[in-house]
Design goal:
Layout (H helix, E strand, L loop, with lengths): L10 E4 L8 E6 L3 E4 L3 E3 L12 E4 L11 E4 L7 E6 L3 E4 L3 E3 L12 E4 L11 E5 L9 E5 L3 E4 L3 E2 L13 E4 L2
């Protein structure tokens, strides 16, 4: 006769017989995986074959953190990861992903792309001398040709929402 076996935490033991050659089987609760022997046999010397198993939380493979972004949450079954992007970057893909029982993620792996503003044209009777249509980069600067003066803002920047900080200026003739 073999000693008593215990059900693993977050699992159960099927068959409680302790007679010679009887078999005990282990199963884990939903969201857990068995690590160790799934079946153990009572031997004639009064010991059980195999190792006492443990039930460990199942986890999905880490989908990674987007470049220029962040990730919060954990990888366990039933849990959700939350993704966001740094300022001046826009999230493409899913902002959340949930680890399913088949160890696959819901949603599409996210990426962060740089925010761009619309193209600008040189003003009539002037030009752009410094230009960046990407958020967080250098300012775009306008000048007017001799005999014309700038009406509006000389320097504008691309903002994190994809809009310009001001309208493009114009160059008007001096009177």
């Amino acid at each position: 006769m073999c000693g008593f076996l215990q059900s693993p935490d977050n699992g159960n033991l099927i068959s409680g017989l302790r007679l010679c050659n009887s078999v005990a089987q282990y199963r884990c609760d939903y969201g857990y995986k068995l690590n160790g022997s799934t079946r153990r046999r009572c031997q004639s010397n009064g010991t059980w074959t195999g190792n006492e198993p443990v039930c460990e939380l199942k986890s999905c493979q880490d989908p990674g953190t987007p470049w220029r972004g962040s990730k919060k949450g954990n990888l366990q079954v039933g849990q959700t990861l939350h993704f966001s992007c740094d300022q001046c970057y826009r999230l493409r893909g899913s902002n959340t992903m949930t680890c399913q029982s088949d160890l696959e993620w819901t949603g599409r792996r996210p990426t962060c792309t740089a925010v761009q503003c619309s193209w600008l044209r040189h003003p009539t009777n002037g030009r752009i001398v410094a230009y960046s249509r990407y958020c967080g980069r250098e300012q775009t600067e306008f000048i007017c040709f001799p005999g014309y003066q700038l009406r509006g803002t000389r320097r504008i920047t691309c903002q994190s929402d994809g809009s310009w900080s001001a309208a493009s200026p114009t160059c008007v003739g001096k009177f």
